[in-house]
Amino acid sequence: MYHNPVLLKQSVDDLVTNPDGTYVDCTFGGGGHSREILNRLSDKGRLFSFDQDLDALKNTIDDPRFTLINQNFRFLENSLLMHSISQVDGILADLGVSSHQFDEADRGFSTRSNAPLDMRMNVMQNLDAKRVINEYGEEELADIFYYYGELREARKLARDIVHHRKTKSIETTEDLKKLFSYIPPHKVNKFYAQLFQAIRIEVNQELEVLKEMLVQAYNILKPEGRLVVISYHSLEDRLVKRFLKNGMFEGEPERDIYGNYKKAFELVKSKAIIPDEKEIEENSRARSAKMRTGIKV
Ligand SMILES: C[S@@+](CC[C@H](N)C(=O)[O-])C[C@H]1O[C@@H](n2cnc3c(N)ncnc32)[C@H](O)[C@@H]1O
């Protein structure tokens, strides 16, 4: 299976409030969420879905209401304008990589299989994991491991990489893992997961593109339009939470003339929605999912 959609019913229930409306799925993947959105739309409804991965295109849906756009969602606003769409009723983003991307061993996302250091969601882009590991400076690497992987030993990891690559370039996921054979066995799985997450976030500029998309999503949503985001790690969730609460990522939101904070969104639930035990049992990728929905004020 290409990808088993997470929080499918909950997300689409939150998203679609107008069957005749225009909707966007920023992360088409296997098309699970997109199909469910189409199920809820009338003949007048429309859905525009994005995916930057060429592999996702083969899952396209043959439906006159549907358009699949092979583009990074950081170009949300302009890509929709090319289809004469300037306002939409709802936007969904189910972030991160698909199971298919993890399962395709040669793409280098999985900590379990040996593969060239790649980790690009869009195989047309220049930056890949091999360049990050072999070309970035020691300090830059340390920052990536610390901030994106939340790895406390970031400085040492960066030093080990830079020391090793002086004699031999680091080509594969196995080459990389071998450098850290001193990590105790009971910690190694979590360590690799954090290390690979950090590199993947850098290669795909995941936090930057998420911020760009959220700002554009706000711009193109109609008043009362809904933004639903499912994230899989705390760095993403923190950005989404702040943006839905304050309409910005840092600092204090603006106040109105009475001194009250100006709201960008009304939250459907104050706390994030997480999958129930049954879903997590059936789909391990659901384990870390958190969903937040905002209604544009
Ligand atoms: C978790 S999967 C989505 C699965 C989908 N909801 C489903 O039901 O099959 C994330 C997908 O979004 C795509 N993606 C991630 N970041 C993207 C971005 N910045 N622009 C476009 N597509 C992106 C990935 O290539 C991947 O196919």
TrEMBL record:
Its EC number is 2.1.1.199. It holds the Pfam family Methyltransf_5. S-adenosyl-L-methionine binds at G31, G32, H33, D51, F73, D94, Q101. The keyword Methyltransferase applies. The keyword rRNA processing applies. It is found in: Cytoplasm. It comes from the Bacteria. Keywords: Cytoplasm, Methyltransferase, rRNA processing, S-adenosyl-L-methionine, Transferase. It catalyses: cytidine(1402) in 16S rRNA + S-adenosyl-L-methionine = N(4)-methylcytidine(1402) in 16S rRNA + S-adenosyl-L-homocysteine + H(+). Specifically methylates the N4 position of cytidine in position 1402 (C1402) of 16S rRNA. PANTHER family: 12S RRNA N4-METHYLCYTIDINE METHYLTRANSFERASE, S-ADENOSYL-METHYLTRANSFERASE MRAW. Belongs to the methyltransferase superfamily. RsmH family. HAMAP family: 16SrRNA_methyltr_H. This is Ribosomal RNA small subunit methyltransferase H. It comes from Chryseobacterium profundimaris.
